[in-house]
Amino acid sequence: MMRTPSDAIRNSPVRLMPGRYAVLRCADVPDGTGWFMIARDPDEVTVIVEESAILESRALETDGGYRILEIKVATGFESVGFLATVTRALAEAGVSILVVSTYSKDYVLVKEESVAAGLKALSGIGFGFAGV
């Protein structure tokens, strides 16, 4: 069943995850388990890690000061335009983002100083919040 983005948004809670995060560009996959997420393609390895666990010696570049908004997506992949609706609202609020996704969640990284504006933008399109 195809759901509209509005239907999916109303049923997909957002949670502000604890901690501050950094995005690292690395030469290869780091050892250990202190990272939140790793993405690897033929050109690079990107690591998202809590700032307290930054692996400076392995990072080619580091960009910190991020908070993560976790969106527990209530629908599968059939809600055409869901992520476009989310990113459009954040862009219109002037919030720069990085989005990464898993099978059932989207994670929106925003700089700490933009968290309030980001939450307000998401509230404005109908998201509910868990533990914010």
Q: What's this model, at a glance?
A:
The chain has 132 residues and is of the alpha+beta class. The protein has a single domain (5-124), classed as VC0802-like (2-Layer Sandwich). It is built from 3 helices and 7 strands; from the N terminus they run αβββββαββα.
Explain this structure to me?
With 132 residues, this protein is an alpha+beta fold. The protein has a single domain, classed as 2-Layer Sandwich (VC0802-like), CATH 3.30.2130.10. 20% of the residues lie in helices and 36% in strands. It is built from three helices and seven strands, in the order αβββββαββα. The protein has helices spanning 5-10, 82-92, 115-124; strands at 14-16, 21-26, 35-40, 45-50, 59-72, 97-101, 105-111. Strands 1, 2, 3, 4, 5, 6 and 7 form a seven-stranded antiparallel beta sheet that branches. Strand 3 (35-40) and strand 4 (45-50) form a beta hairpin. Helix 2 (82-92) packs across helix 3 (115-124). The two termini are 31 Å apart.
Topology (elements, then pairings):
Elements: H1 5-10, E1 14-16, E2 21-26, E3 35-40, E4 45-50, E5 59-72, H2 82-92, E6 97-101, E7 105-111, H3 115-124
Antiparallel strand pairs: 1-5, 2-4, 2-5, 3-4, 5-7, 6-7
Helix pairs in contact: 2-3
Index terms:
single chain; 132 residues; alpha+beta; VC0802-like; seven-stranded antiparallel beta sheet
By CATH, the superfamily comes out as VC0802-like
CATH fold node name? VC0802-like
Cα shape: globular
Show unreliable segments. none
Structural class estimated from helices and strands: alpha+beta
> Which oligomerization state do the chains in this entry correspond to?
single chain
Supply the CATH class: Alpha Beta
Helix content: 10-25%
Largest sheet, strands/sense/barrel: 7 strands, antiparallel
Secondary-structure element pattern, one letter each:
HEEEEEHEEH
Q: Strand-residue fraction?
A: 35-45%
The count of DSSP E runs of length 2 or more, i.e. the number of strands, is 7
Number of domains: 1
Q: What's the average pLDDT?
A: 89
